């Protein structure tokens, strides 16, 4: 499910340097570039997504995130952005460290596996959840780490990562209403603005 | 109507058709990096497509070591298409329906432009080994003079593979305001020791041929065929991958068999192939040009004059870059392309990097590959859209 995360643009300084790690078809980076005049680069591995980036004139670099980000110097970007990719990586915690080594700030979004629909699916049906948000069967899902909003908060604490902002996104009833009251249960997508 | 449509479709994936080389005599003196001044020089080139009314849609194609001006189309007397015909033509990635494409044989080469086989005006004999050493920057300077000659102020793109990519990068530093895009394919900011080693073995092979005559073989009416063929065989092996050679030739035999009790030698297919390639090459390429251009490759070091700092070097560039590498290319490996890309990112330049999976080794940049064609085509098609929108 695609939630509108346009609000993250307010966290990105005009004319700053942005690295979008796992940039997909480059839509988000193109719109940040056009609205905030940033110098943006996207990292991507999927050939079709790379082709889409090229068509949009988005700077796209073919790079496998699982092989590390060592080629980027410390603090060489103002913002490192990673949308809906953390759960698909071999070592999410190390990538998180890398994001904040390369970028002064990080913006990370992920699907909250603690959402009540996912919980209900697993506990009532006894099968791994296949929902609008997580539309894959267990055997061919790119999502190899299942974690919740609470898990992520705990990881940030453990690794001394500062949370500058957090936003909880959910559509429909009752999630949209209750996401602020009980984020771990009603958030579908969690959005974090981070620094060291 | 349907006939028209089918004609257009044919046209889109077609060839530029019959082409004729043109000759420009550049009367402005060209001061080479080595200090020698060429008072004038001749350039042979080809063009495909039409220059638009603002002269903004010109693409310069830079050839590599053994390349020439015949990049696309065919000659009346020779049906073999130009060396990059897969990529240049109507509807092809470098689209002659949308761009005015120029490919020039560079000085020091041997296809009609001023080089070692040209007459030295001081002696009335071929330059031979006395042709001054030429650097990639001299090619760029000579190309700039041709650009003036053709009334083009700014290239839409400078495109090249291997040594061609080195020229594209040099363009971006020497004349940053004269190109909008640099497309750098299977290239490197400098050769590795291994690369220089292969080039030196090739040169040594040429010089060891008794017919080389210290480089003045033309005056002696001789050609160092054997040496040049050997040089090409060495080079050719390094342009292919182990996998591809295995697939293409394996241990297949051309002649004889390996049964015990036989004394006659066998010939492997790969031996026959390499000998054929070497012989063919030595019929049309000049030995002094081969020495000169391999030295140009060895000497190329993009960041040398920028305190060996590629980021400082690329900070002078103003154009956007597309960098392409091929997985099995071990002569100009993907790592070299990544170094270019990382330096461009660190210098804050617009760059995209595409790593193409291919088992064709360094030669992949010349060969059909769906993803490579789509990437190059997609990149240039966006540029054409912008140019046509601005018309």
Cα-based radius of gyration of chain B, to the nearest Å: 21 Å
Main pleated-sheet profile of chain A: 7 strands, mixed
Distance between the termini of chain B: 29 Å
Element pattern of chain A in H and E:
EHEHEEHEHHEHHE
Largest sheet descriptor of chain B: 8 strands, mixed
* Secondary-structure element string of chain B: HEEEEEEEEHEHEHHHEEHHHEHEH
CATH topology category name of the domain at 64-195 in chain A: Rossmann fold
Number of strands of chain A: 7
Helix percentage of chain A: 25-40%
Can you tell me the CATH topology of the largest domain in chain B? Rossmann fold
Task: Give the uncertain stretches of chain B in residue-range form.
Answer: 1-12
Quaternary state of this entry equals heterodimer
What can you tell me about this protein's structure?
The complex is a heterodimer of chains A (196) and B (391). With 196 residues, chain A is an alpha/beta fold. Chain A has helices at residues 27-36, 47-56, 92-102, 116-125, 149-158, 175-178, 183-186; strands at 17-21, 39-44, 60-62, 77-83, 103-111, 162-169, 189-195. Chain A has a domain at 64-195: Rossmann fold. A seven-stranded mixed sheet of chain A has the order 3-2-1-4-5-7-6, with helices on both faces. Chain A is globular, with a radius of gyration of 16 Å. Chain A starts with 16 loop residues before the first strand and ends with a strand. Helices cover 36% and strands 15% of the residues of chain B. Chain B is built from eleven helices and 14 strands. Chain B has helices at residues 2-12, 136-149, 163-174, 193-207, 225-239, 242-248, 269-284, 287-299, 310-314, 334-346, 370-390; strands at 22-26, 30-31, 37-38, 41-48, 58-62, 88-89, 94-95, 100-104, 157-161, 181-185, 253-255, 267-268, 320-326, 351-356. Chain B has an eight-stranded mixed sheet, sandwiched between helices. In chain B, strands 2-3 form a two-stranded antiparallel ribbon. In chain B, strands 6-7 form a two-stranded parallel ribbon. The A-B interface holds A 17, 39, 41, 47, 50-51, 53-55, 57-63, 71-73, 76 and B 322, 338, 341-342, 345-346, 348, 350-355, 371, 374-375, 378-379, 381-382.
């Amino acid at each position: 499910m695609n939630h509108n995360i346009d609000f993250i643009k307010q966290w990105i300084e005009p004319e700053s340097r942005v690295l979008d790690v796992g940039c997909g078809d480059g839509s988000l980076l193109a719109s940040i570039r056009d609205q905030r005049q940033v110098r943006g680069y996207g990292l991507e591995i999927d050939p079709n997504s790379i082709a889409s980036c090229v068509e949009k004139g988005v700077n796209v670099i073919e790079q496998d995130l699982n092989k590390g980000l060592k080629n980027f110097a410390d603090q060489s970007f103002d913002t490192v952005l990673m949308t809906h990719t953390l759960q698909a990586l071999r070592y999410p915690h190390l990538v998180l460290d890398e994001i904040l080594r390369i970028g002064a700030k990080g913006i990370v979004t992920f699907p909250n596996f603690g959402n009540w629909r996912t919980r209900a699916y697993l506990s009532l049906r006894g099968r791994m959840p296949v929902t609008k948000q997580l539309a894959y069967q267990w055997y061919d899902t790119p999502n190899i780490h299942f974690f919740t909003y609470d898990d992520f908060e705990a990881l940030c604490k453990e690794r001394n990562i500062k949370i500058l902002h957090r936003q909880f996104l959910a559509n429909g009833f009752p999630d949209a209403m209750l996401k602020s009251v009980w984020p771990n249960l009603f958030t579908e997508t969690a959005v974090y603005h981070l620094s060291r | 109507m349907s006939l028209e449509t089918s004609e257009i479709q044919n046209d889109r994936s077609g060839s530029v058709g019959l082409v004729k080389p043109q000759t420009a005599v550049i009367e402005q003196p060209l001061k080479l990096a080595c200090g020698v001044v060429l008072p004038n020089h001749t350039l042979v080139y080809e063009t495909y497509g039409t220059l638009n009314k603002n002269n903004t849609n010109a693409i310069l194609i830079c050839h590599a070591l053994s390349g020439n001006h015949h990049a696309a189309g065919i000659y009346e007397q020779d049906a073999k298409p130009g060396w990059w015909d897969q990529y240049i033509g109507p509807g092809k990635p470098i689209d002659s329906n949308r761009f005015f494409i120029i490919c020039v044989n560079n000085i020091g080469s041997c296809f009609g432009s001023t080089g070692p086989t040209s007459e030295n005006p001081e002696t009335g004999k071929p330059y031979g080994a006395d042709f001054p050493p030429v650097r990639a920057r001299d090619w760029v300077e000579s190309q700039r003079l041709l650009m003036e000659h053709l009334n083009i102020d700014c290239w839409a793109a400078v495109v090249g593979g291997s040594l061609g990519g080195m020229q594209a990068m040099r363009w971006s530093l020497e004349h940053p305001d004269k190109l909008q895009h640099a497309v750098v394919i299977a290239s490197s900011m400098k050769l590795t020791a291994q690369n220089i080693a292969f080039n030196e073995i090739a040169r040594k092979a040429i010089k060891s041929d008794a017919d080389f005559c210290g480089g003045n073989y033309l005056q002696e009416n001789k050609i160092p065929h054997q040496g040049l063929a050997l040089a090409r065989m060495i080079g050719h092996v390094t342009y292919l991958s182990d996998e591809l050679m295995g697939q293409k030739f394996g241990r297949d035999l051309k002649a004889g068999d390996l049964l015990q009790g036989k004394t006659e030698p066998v010939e492997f297919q790969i031996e026959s192939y390499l000998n054929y390639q070497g012989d063919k090459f030595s019929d049309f390429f000049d030995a002094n040009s081969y020495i000169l251009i391999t030295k140009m490759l060895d000497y190329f070091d993009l960041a040398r004059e920028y305190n060996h700092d590629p980021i400082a070097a690329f900070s002078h560039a103003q154009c956007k870059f597309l960098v392409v590498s091929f997985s099995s290319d071990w002569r100009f490996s993907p790592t070299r392309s990544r170094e270019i890309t990382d330096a461009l990112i660190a210098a804050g330049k617009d760059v995209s990097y595409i790593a193409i999976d291919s088992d064709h080794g360094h030669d992949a940049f010349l060969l059909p590959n769906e993803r490579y064609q789509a990437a190059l085509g997609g990149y240039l098609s966006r540029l054409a859209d912008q140019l046509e929108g601005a018309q």
